[in-house]
């Protein structure tokens, strides 16, 4: 593994660069394929039944999605003679490509693989899967955003937000919860990608920062299930506080950075007269708020001298927060303060002028 | 403005750095100084907005509430000292820091001139309050109470956010000052009624309206003393303040949505007073009595009478001080008897006779006896309701009577009667407690001499 | 659409349905996947002939990558046979909960 790791990381980087730079569908497809093949060793890092199962499931869904992508490219090539992704004018290939990308990022009708794959892999690899691996499909969606059907994206987005929140209500595995939260966040990205693609990318950046901070903290505390969170505050108060802030930011409560994409998205949706979509997105996001709140309760509201029912795991080392986590958490909290003030002030200037 | 905001904000980093010995002393002194600074903002002859920059400012609607929330912070710190005695020092630091954060967000809410900034700060008060309730509450049920609190308020504020952003898309501005000058024209369809209803809903839950009030008794019962005090004194007033701000912006055409809400509020005032009569839990009784008092404010604000802003401001300030005082008194009894059941804490007059005089004073203020400012506020509100419709006098009069009955019931059942056996040996009262009571009553007594300080017509 | 194009499209769709619906053995799933890729390869080759572009780089790239994919799929087949003692898709149920 030590020798192959640089190669794997280099492949992941280069393929994502190809996404960023290329508009030719076959080239993008090659990058997608290489990306999938490169992440598989990271998932199946330990030859453990669960890791193998996760990598098999990931492989099958991703291979199918990329086959659909190349299929839509071939169809468009046959109909229009163009292989450029921005010239995807054939309606069938457009819809097939959109659906394939939804499979890739794990949106609702095709979301079943995300929790299961995440459950089978290590938390650090999960950060890769939830942030870096979604960049490619999102850039493809960004490129085809003027052609996307808004009805399709809005229905998929509201469904994703609803189903992810719903599935999280009785979930006790932390990594599965994070996967579901990723589905719900993807919904916020998808719903706006038609009208304000740059806003969708901004949402993705903020989401990536926040979920990286959350997962790094969870990894530090070696938490796999909610019940281990109960003792986390007595083990490491600072790390748990960071976890609390990141979770609140993920849930999008106002003073934190997670609120900003929601605010701007709702504003944009209302400008496009999609009031009911906005309302549905906000109300279904309450479901995810509920499971964030449960994580939060378990990690911090039951600290000593209140008694808990969980025994302390002495064999695990005491986690220390490190520089990366602190930096990421700072990014999730301070962002909104500056932007809020800036927004408030600029808006006033417009109204007065 | 900024001297208040920054001074309060710097309390947040100051507190964790304090040595353990002065954990309580320094924040209390500091917040008293901030309160003294806040009094400078009070300038009742100035009926215009006192702005600092385009986003922050205060006028006579927000200044008294700002001062009230500043006033409450040292009182909360004093009241929590005894119950936080046994917790470790870092947790005391965290507790005070979170109170300071709550104070900061409250000040931001009252100062915000931009509706979106107002919304953000309004929501930002939720997190510190949630932490206070769900972390420092006494029983396991506190987690449930926290969920109730959070989900009631957030669910109702989602329509508020959409409404605010719709106003932004319609008008291009969210400044309260500009919106007052440019009335909404051409808004008479049912969607606009829906828009205004969605804007009102968040405040009606916060204040709370009867039927949307279930989170409040739960949160009050489970919260620690500081949480109960700030909930009753300031957080409920956020709803009244928001209603006062928004009602000015509403168009005259949309009058159809008021009467049902108004009727429900009056009916709710009566119902919650009746609920008070059959309460067994002291804190729950006080919580329901605040629902009843605030329902009167809701009803009066929705009539949009000339007298309403004055009456509702005076009643909100008076009720803020009174209910906070009652919660403190309930907490004193709770710290001695370790129960909130009225039956198990009767006859307190025999053990702590000095507290009985405070109880008496607080009860008189709660039932709005004539010289108090509670009376001035209630009188103005009942007058404005009477002006709107004569029949409301039936409900408001009955409500005042029942208020007097349940207040006397509360007073007599806690203070008089025979002592239960387990309460024979109780600790005597402390100077801290008397100071706390004095700081609650002093402003209300001084304001009797000049209620125009709160609102100047 | 030309008859050849329609044929390849149908073969792709049939393989997709096979991949989606038949969860018996990992090998059959991999075969369906390979069928999908091969029909794409054939379609691209025919298209290159039809459009008279003398470049065959597109179909060859697709073929190469699909071969890589099949290799990885077989590796996963071996791995799951080693860890689960079988390669039946029904047995991949450790992570459902």
Low-confidence stretches of chain A: 345-353
| Head-to-tail CA distance between termini of chain C | 46 Å
Q: How many structural domains can be distinguished in the coordinates of chain C?
A: 1
Percentage of residues assigned to helices of chain C = over 70%
Helix coverage percent of chain A: over 70%
Helix count from the secondary structure assignment of chain C: 3
Order of helices and strands of chain C: HHH
The tally of helices of chain A reads 15
Q: Sheet with the most strands of chain C?
A: none
Structure, explained:
The complex is a heterotrimer of chains A (353), B (457) and C (97). Chain A is mostly helical. Chain A is built from 15 helices and no strands. In chain A, helix 8 runs antiparallel to helix 14. In chain A, 59% of the residues are buried. In chain B, a hairpin with a 3-residue loop joins strand 1 and strand 2. Chain B is globular. In chain B, helix 6 runs antiparallel to helix 7, helix 7 runs antiparallel to helix 9 and helix 14 packs antiparallel against helix 16. Chain B has a domain of 201 residues. With 457 residues, chain B is mainly α. Chain C has one domain: Helix Hairpins (Orthogonal Bundle). In chain C, 74% of the residues lie in helices and 0% in strands. Chain C is built from 3 helices and no strands. In chain C, helix 1 runs antiparallel to helix 2 and helix 2 runs antiparallel to helix 3. Chain C is elongated. The interface between A and B is large, with 36 and 42 residues. Chain B: It comes from Alligator mississippiensis (American alligator). Chain B: It catalyses: a ubiquinone + NADH + 5 H(+)(in) = a ubiquinol + NAD(+) + 4 H(+)(out). Chain B: This is NADH-ubiquinone oxidoreductase chain 4. Chain B: It is found in: Mitochondrion membrane. Chain B: It holds the Pfam family Proton_antipo_M.
